[in-house]
Specification:
By secondary structure, the protein is α/β, with parallel strands linked by helices. 34% of the residues lie in helices and 15% in strands.
Length: 207
């Protein structure tokens, strides 16, 4: 069973915690991790790009010059692709880039990503993380105590408003609730900081 240190807000080790091997010591499936990242990025694409084909460009109904005798190459319309201002060949049109992964694949990808962070010693568990006021300096102090600059902070999803608001102005730091954990964010940030209560919630879902 994976065993990690538990830290307080001052960066001191206050104990140990056993992690569920089904979630945090799973077999790392790199293919599903890659697939989950591509899925995340594809679903974020707006897909609103558009260019006009020659049938959609305005004008160009008249033949520019007669077919023969001018010395020019024959032309049928000034809206043909070879003309400046003409239509685009195989022009992009609005489309949906999203695709789906089944639930088992998503869960396996998340377990793989979490396991990789544990194996790399970039998974820090905190006994608690709470502020009595919204203060960016307090969050910076916690990060400095843990010797972390860029981090994904996973919270239990309860009353964490002060922590979220204290973190959102720090570059390279993102806070998410345990029920919104995803592969892309886990891999994007150098370190995962998670509370004990959030670990329990993740284990409930993915174990």
């Amino acid at each position: 069973m994976a065993n990690v240190s538990v830290y307080n807000m001052e960066g001191s080790e206050v104990g140990k915690m056993d992690l569920n091997d089904k979630v945090f010591a799973a077999k790392v499936n790199e293919h599903l991790i890659h697939m989950a990242v591509v899925l995340h990025l594809a679903n974020k694409r707006q897909g609103t790009q558009k260019a006009k084909t020659r049938s959609e460009v305005r004008g160009g109904g008249k033949k520019p010059w007669k077919q023969k005798g001018t010395g020019h190459a024959r032309q049928g319309s000034i809206r043909a692709p070879q003309w400046k201002g003409g239509g685009v060949v195989f022009a992009p049109v609005p489309r949906d880039y999203s695709f789906k992964m089944n639930k088992k694949e998503k869960a396996c990808a998340i377990r793989s990503a979490l396991t990789s962070r544990v194996n790399e010693k970039k998974f820090l568990v905190m006994d608690s993380l709470a502020f009595d006021e919204i203060k960016t300096k307090k969050m910076v102090k916690v990060l400095d105590a843990l010797k972390v600059k860029k981090a994904l902070v996973i919270l239990d999803g309860g009353d964490n408003a002060n922590v979220v608001l204290s973190s959102r102005n720090i570059q390279g730091v993102k806070t998410i609730p345990a029920n919104s954990v995803n592969v892309y964010d886990i891999l994007k940030y150098e370190t995962v900081i998670i509370t004990k209560s959030a670990v329990s919630k993740i284990e409930e879902v993915y174990a």
